């Protein structure tokens, strides 16, 4: 859809209800506002154009080749005539897929050291499921730790063509763009091989340590069974017992819901609605200063009041420079039981444990052990997109925790949207990749308030002084010195510009206290 000849607009169908279309501008580095800079007339016209034609469907699931809009609803299946179903009906009722019945193993798996069982599974080529597959797969939990089961479930999560376990580089670090391999991954591989023996239609071993996925819908069921077996531990037997424990354990976490502004209250309700729909996590987008911290706290309190998961602690991950301000805000302003993550890396029970991003990789093993009973908040999640050990450690914790909240003011930092897609995978039930990440992005809990404030960007050129020129020409540049010299050389021009606009009111942002005094 287009507005005259100036720009194109994108339309994505809704996640929960396909008729809940979202209209946005095409993401790019230059695009500052994706949603708010579009008039109601433009949105209506864009949706009208999209609904007026049939669209080809590309999906690993058997829902048909076309989607069309008719009688106020989206339909899937054939392009026209019979053989179509209401898309909302498919979402509500799900899909039924026939599968072959595979012969079961003669002897049950006895654990990661059962080489005979592994050899049989690797030699056997089958399809479908064995009889009683769910019960058998859930029983595998008896032979491995909860962390191994959750790690296995996280590796098959979102996969519908192949499952590739991470492999270390020759120096033991990251291999290419992969996340890190961790100690214990050999047990995870053997567990997945045991699963493939019971569900060959879901997983098929290929070149070690990878698997192909013959039927992605079966793999979705296998993932659900794996997570259910781990959830049996987290719930401690009875739902009411865990909820009561949460209420008692977290009695000091008090959030006055009446102080929430309308957009914060709406965000909390959106997250609770996503929980009810089975979303594993949330990606919250709010501009700086709009109250992400209070919103997340309020949601955590509501989650704890109703959850069947026995939650022992909260982990709040934030950039280094925000650790102290976050602790101050949590403690003094909102009265939350908050502390900095202890030196040993073991989160303090019944507390919000604040930790800087860069420390994750150093205490990854301790956090992974605590993660199954920990709620995790990643503040400024956009700083953890790059393929680094820190990001790998963050994904490891995110994959093991019962509920995840990512929050940021800038979800689109650059044009490398695959890195954003990796985090969106953690917050959605459906497979997210580079081809459909925009649909998942439109499922973000985004509360952008249009204050009607215009933004004007202006550049001021400053003549280069000799000391600046010399700093830039030095063979082995000290970039901190270059930045300092450049800043010193431009301070005067910035103050002159501020003085010129003094009647309007000016906010000058300094680098540190000394810089503030200089300005």
CATH class assignment of the largest domain: Alpha Beta
Strand order of the largest sheet: 15-16-14-17-18-13-19
**What gap, in angstroms, lies between the N and C termini?**
48 Å
Query: CATH homologous superfamily of the largest domain?
Result: Tandem AAA-ATPase domain
Q: Which blocks of ≥5 consecutive residues have pLDDT under 50?
A: 174-178, 235-239
- Beta-strand percent range: 5-15%
Number of domains: 4
Tell me, briefly, the overall form: globular
The secondary-structure class comes to alpha/beta
> What do we call the CATH topology of the largest domain?
Rossmann fold
Question: Given the structure, what is the number of helices?
Answer: 18
What is the level-2 CATH architecture name of the largest domain?
3-Layer(aba) Sandwich
Q: Oligomerization state of this entry?
A: single chain
Helix content: 25-40%
- Rg from Cα: 26 Å
Calculate the mean pLDDT score and round it: 85
Describe the sheet with the most strands.
7 strands, parallel
Number of strands: 19
GO molecular function, one term: ATP binding
Protein name: Helicase ATP-binding domain-containing protein
Domain Helicase ATP-binding: 273-429
InterPro entries: DEAD/DEAH_box_helicase_dom, Helicase_ATP-bd, P-loop_NTPase
Question: How would you describe what is shown here?
Answer:
Strand 6 and strand 7 form a beta hairpin. This protein folds into four domains: 92 residues, no CATH class; 134 residues, no CATH class; 208 residues, 3-Layer(aba) Sandwich (Rossmann fold); 53 residues, no CATH class. With 519 residues, it is an alpha/beta fold. Helix content is 38%, strand content 14%. About 2% of the residues have low confidence. Strands 15-16-14-17-18-13-19 form a seven-stranded parallel sheet. It is globular. The protein contains 18 helices and 19 strands. The two termini are 48 Å apart. This is Helicase ATP-binding domain-containing protein. GO terms for molecular function: ATP binding; nucleic acid binding. InterPro entries: DEAD/DEAH_box_helicase_dom, Helicase_ATP-bd, P-loop_NTPase. Pfam families: DEAD.
